[in-house]
Amino acid sequence: MATKKPDGSERSSDKTSPPTPDFERAMAELEAVVERLEQGELPLEQALSHFERGVQLTGACQAALKAAEQKVEILLRKSGVSEVSAFESEDVDVDNSADDAGDNGS
């Protein structure tokens, strides 16, 4: 079970994994993990350990983003905005394959 530290990040009661950092720290650590893995010079066991940490950090980042999205929706509803539309960016192609299950793209 995770508990909150004074800085807002979570501390896991699982002694085998490091505590979950706040979003910005998790992203910075995730970028470092990805960079190390992309170099391809780690022994297999270290690469697997780094990959596992990357998965943990990805989950933490996704949870933080989901919580922020929910807070924004609540604030918008309280301010009288009745409908929240999806953000569309010309620069980023987001893969919504989970949302489009059964849609073959046609």
Biggest sheet layout: 2 strands, antiparallel
* Residues in helices, as a percent range: 40-55%
Task: Return residue spans where pLDDT drops below 50 for at least 5 consecutive residues.
Answer: 1-9
Mean pLDDT value: 77
The CATH superfamily bears the name Exonuclease VII, small subunit
Any idea of the CATH topology?
A: Helix Hairpins
Rg computed from alpha carbons, rounded to a whole number of angstroms: 18 Å
**What separation lies between the terminal Cα atoms?**
44 Å
What is the secondary structure topology, with strand pairs?
Elements: E1 2-4, E2 10-12, H1 23-39, H2 44-78
Antiparallel strand pairs: 1-2
Care to describe what's here?
With 106 residues, the protein is mainly α. The chain has a single domain, classed as Helix Hairpins (Orthogonal Bundle), CATH 1.10.287. The chain is built from two helices and two strands; from the N terminus they run E-E-H-H. The chain has a two-stranded antiparallel sheet. Strand 1 and strand 2 form a beta hairpin. The longest helix has 35 residues. The N terminus is likely disordered.
Annotation keywords:
2 helices; 106 residues; disordered N terminus; Helix Hairpins; 2 strands; single chain; two-stranded antiparallel ribbon; 49% helix
Short description:
With 106 residues, the protein is mainly α. The protein has a single domain (2-78), classed as Exonuclease VII, small subunit (Helix Hairpins, Orthogonal Bundle), CATH 1.10.287.1040. It has helices at residues 23-39, 44-78, and strands at 2-4, 10-12.
